[in-house]
Amino acid sequence: MAATLEHPTGAPERTRRVVADDPAHIDRWFDRATLTAGIVVLVLLVLVGVFLLLRSRQAFSEVGIFNFLTHQGFRTDTHPPKVGVLGLLSGTVIVAVIALTIALPFGVIVALFITEYASIRVRKYLTTLVDLLAAVPSLIFGIWGAYYLSAQVVPLEQWIGLHFSWVPFLQIDQGAKLVGSQFIAGLVVALMVLPITASVIRETFAQTPPGEKEAALALGSTRWGMIRSVVLPYGRGGIVGGAMLGLGRALGETIAVRFILGGVPNASFKILENGGSTVAGFIATRAGGDTFTVSALMAAGLVLFGMTLATNMIASVVVARSRSGAGVEL
């Protein structure tokens, strides 16, 4: 209780208590441990970037950075070698965009159901179930997608190609193979992206101020009206951040894409047909070889490393600057 002094008139006069911030011994050790862990992560990140840069110098000096970024094909057995990452980058972006287009709406729906509709008991089970999806190895997703899902999705691809042939990237050539397409790869990666996207969005929706939700309901709004006018606007930053984190996850997926796509390093913009590859999947396919091949693969990995790092940094900035960013840890 604050100390009091006797006023000349007889009324007690309050004095301000000075609160000293004196953390306990265990708190100081915890602060140091977390700071050390953060520094170690940053150092490892820098070391990975430096390692890729040093190992890719031979490819960059032989081909040129501009030519490597603007050409497609991967022939290291010619003189001069013809290697470029443009075709692989286009496949990487296409698969990631397909995955995000599928995963983001489902992530928002799952997050809304868990936070606004499900009972407390059901909410715990659904949260655990969604988080367990992230624990399934990508190898399992790749085998399942290549040997089971591909054959099941072919009729859907045929239907899309028949009814939406007026869209250039949804056209199907006569006699084209539909197994091993970028659409199937994107569908599999979407299942792998869904847990992280739904988790970030769910955490954001859960931070919505209860007073604002209750005020909307008190003014006669329906539950959906309250969600549309309060929850979704509040969680906009979390939705964008979750989408971009999911995009970063999709850009770097390796094993699952390696099983589904054939590893062709040329751009393919017909997503329903067989063809195309991603940077990570192609590196897994061509790992090893002579010194120059390894250097070229390291250069491709460096480009993917920079792209993924930039995506995650942008996501963190977007969430931190949003109204809901205070309650979300990325």
Description of the structure:
- The protein has a single domain (85-327), classed as MetI-like (MetI-like fold, Orthogonal Bundle).
- Helix content is 67%, strand content 3%.
- It has helices at 25-55, 57-63, 65-70, 86-117, 120-133, 138-163, 182-206, 210-218, 223-234, 236-251, 255-260, 279-285, 291-320, and strands spanning 4-6, 12-14, 74-75, 82-83.
- A two-stranded antiparallel ribbon has the order 1-2.
- Strand 1 (4-6) and strand 2 form a beta hairpin.
- Helix 2 crosses helix 13 (291-320).
- The chain is globular and about 95 Å long.
- The protein starts with a strand and ends in a 10-residue tail after the last helix.
SSE order, one letter for each helix or strand: EEHHHEEHHHHHHHHHH
CATH superfamily: MetI-like
Q: Indicate the percent of residues in helices.
A: 55-70%
Number of strands: 4
CATH architecture identity? Orthogonal Bundle
Tell me the structural class.
mainly alpha
Radius of gyration: 26 Å
Mean pLDDT: 84
Number of helices: 13
Biggest sheet architecture:
2 strands, antiparallel
What would you call the shape? Answer: globular
Strand order of the largest sheet: 1-2
What are the low-pLDDT stretches, counting only 5+ consecutive residues below 50? 325-330
Distance between the termini: 40 Å
Give the count of structural domains: 1
CATH topology: MetI-like fold
- CATH C-level: Mainly Alpha
Write a compact overview of the structure shown.
The protein has helices at 25-55, 57-63, 65-70, 86-117, 120-133, 138-163, 182-206, 210-218, 223-234, 236-251, 255-260, 279-285, 291-320; strands at residues 4-6, 12-14, 74-75, 82-83. It has 330 residues and is mainly α.
